[in-house]
Each structure stands twice: as structure tokens, then as C-alpha cells.
Amino acid sequence: MVTAETHELVKKGEMLPLMEEFYTIQGEGYHKGTAAYFIRIGGCDVGCHWCDVKESWNAEVHPPTLTSQIVENAIKYSDTVVVTGGEPLTWDMTKLTNELKEKGASVHIETSGAYPLTGKWDWICLSPKKLKLPTPEVYRNANELKVIVYNKNDFEFAEEQADKVPDDCILYLQPEWSKRDKMIPQIVDYVMQNPKWKVSLQTHKYLNIP
Q: Which residues are annotated as a binding site for S-adenosyl-L-methionine?
């Protein structure tokens, strides 16, 4: 049972509901192929039906962990740290990112952008979802837009989202894993006709690594 004191520490970002942490290769988007330490924070109410980490949704099943301990674990392995979820912006990311950057880490986030932007980030990968759209601030600060393509209607959604990010934001279309055989040919054709977009694949799954 989480005490009132622990709840208050989580609210302040001094503790975070840690689902898992691991050192691996970034499999997606601009930094694919880069060794990085991943911090997966529990808690998400965006509710994508095709989410491949639904076990992250309920923050209450993931133990509140001291943010300072999470930082110490990360810097033992890599100076590139990726914060993901769940939806990490559910929580205040200020303390986590400040301490990582004080240790010299380059700090990235993978987010739906559905909550206010907290923390200091070297790279923001925005993966917007139709059920709960990003906040204006996240749109403005996105370095990378990654739209998951589940069906042909997602191309229209992708264009709508591209209109809201900066001109220098890198645009990716990524097939939803279970639909990859059907959607990859459509994505390839779309990118060839609309070369402002790039193709992103979940290469870590092809490599059979976490």
C-alpha cells in the first residue's frame, strides 16, 4: 500500500512508478541503432488498443522508486537515456531530467504529448494518439514526429499532426507491429509520393532484442 508520504513524493517527481529499466539498442526513429539506457515509467490513460506494453498502464502496480536511484542506475550504463512508458509526462519529469543532465547524460523522451511538458530534454520524440491529442507546448518542442500507422486513415491523421510541429521536426511513419505486412507496402508508397516523410521500423523486434 502506498503511503500518503510516498504519494506526495511521487507527485513532486522525487519518486516515480518504475516499471522497468534496461540497457539496449534504440530500435526506432532518428536514433535507431544507438546504445541507450531505457527507463520505462508506469502509468498511462491514453488507452491505445494496439499498445504493446499495456502492462504499463496501471501505475499502481509499479513500485514508487527514488528518482535519484533511477538516475544512478542509468549512468552506470550509458550517457544516452531514453524515458518512455506508459506515458512519462503523466508525472513531473523535472527532477529526473535535471539529475541526469547534471551527470552528463543526453536525455530523450518518447511521449504521446497528452500532458504538460515537464523536464529538460535533448530530444523529444512525439508519437501522438487520436484518443488524447498532444498539448500545444509538446507540438512546439518536438524534434521527431512518429505516427503509428494501423490503417489507411492514419495517413490523414499523420498529415494533420505534421502541420502542428516545427518545420525542422523529422517526420516518421511507423507500421503498427501486428499490421506490418499489410501496412509497410502502403507506407513505402506514401513516402515515395510524399518524401517529407521517412519510414520507421521497430528494428529491435527484427533483431530480437528488448
A: 50-52, 86, 127-129
